[in-house]
Amino acid sequence: HMDLGTPIPTSGNLDHWVAQGVFPINSVLTVRAHETGSHRDKGWEIFTDAVIKKLSDERENLVFMLWGSYAKQKMSLIDTRKHLVLTTVHPSPRSAEYGFFGCKHFSKANAFLRSKGIQEINW
Asked: CB-based burial of residue 99 (10 Å sphere; 0-12 exposed, 13-18 middle, 19+ buried)?
């Protein structure tokens, strides 16, 4: 909310992002309750890497937001000549204050989209 001057959302529901074409995805799509990273190296990375690579190869002018050191490793899958890649720390409560807050990824994404004549996201 600090980036765009919007109210703090009352829920974590991202359906309104998805309806505008935003595709939130983690590298690993499942986890055992209260065990961060418990399903890492179980095969999810093969699938999500393929999704990221396919989007990068077949689309243009996408914005990839890579949050956290694990996500930053996905940079090699993205054609940075065609897309904007934004990186910062993970927005978890343990690390958000060390770079996520204030990174302005949402306004930077909108500025990029606007510069390409693409509809901005109503974050």
From this structure: middle
56-74, pLDDT tens digit by residue?
999 999 999 999 999 999 9
Rounded Cα gap, residues 118 and 20, in angstroms: 11
- Gap between the Cα atoms of 29 and 66, Å rounded: 15
Distance between CA 73 and CA 35 in Å, rounded?
21
According to CATH, the topology of domain 25-115 is Uracil-DNA Glycosylase, subunit E (3.40.470)
Contacts for 117 with CB less than 8 Å, ≥ 6 apart: none
Ranges of each domain in the chain:
25-115
3-state class (DSSP) for residue 15: helix
Task: Name the DSSP letter for residue 68.
Answer: S
